[in-house]
Amino acid sequence: METVTHAAVLARFGHALSDATRTRLLLALRDAPGYPAELADLLGVTRQNLSNHLACLRGCGLVVAVPQGRRTRYELADARIRHALDDLLGLALAVDPAACADPEDVR
User: Fold this and answer.
1) What is the span of the domain harbouring residue 22?
2) How far apart are CA 4 and CA 42, in angstroms?
3) Distance between CA 76 and CA 59 in Å, rounded?
4) Counted domains in the chain
5) Residue 104 domain-assigned (yes or no)
6) How many other β-carbons are positioned within 10 Å of the β-carbon of residue 40?
7) Crossing angle for the helix pair 20-31 and 79-95, nearest 10 degrees?
């Protein structure tokens, strides 16, 4: 049975994924934890922009900050998020296989 709470949780996850930078950030963290400076370089965004996206993802409960001395490492809040991202990506590609195809192959 669907509840208001379930809908709110899924809406929060959807909000996190509604921005391409946040989605790329989640996919990067799916592969391995990371530090803000390296993540900003990887994604090609400013550190301030990345900080805003990390704050959003923390607010959604999807990532956590782990203090390590003077640095802070970010990682997915739960291993099940990695599986959910994998499942969601697999579903999206099953529905639209051309979504990740080489543009030269799609004619």
Assistant:
1) 4-94
2) 37
3) 13
4) 1
5) no
6) 20
7) 120
Give yes or no for a contact between 65 and 50, defined as CB atoms under 8 angstroms apart. Answer: no
Judge whether 35 lies within some domain: yes
Q: What are the φ/ψ torsions at residue 72 (nearest 5 degrees)?
A: -130, 125
As given in the structure block, the two tokens for residue 79 are 């291993």
CATH code of the domain covering residue 37: 1.10.10.10
Q: What is the pLDDT along the chain (107 residues), one digit of tens a residue?
A: 568 788 888 888 899 999 999 999 999 999 999 999 999 999 999 999 999 999 999 999 999 999 999 999 999 999 999 999 999 999 988 888 777 665 554 43
The HSE-up count of residue 46 (CA atoms within 13 Å, CB side) is 3
Distance in angstroms (rounded) separating the CA atoms of residues 102 and 63: 31
Question: Which residue type occupies 18?
Answer: S
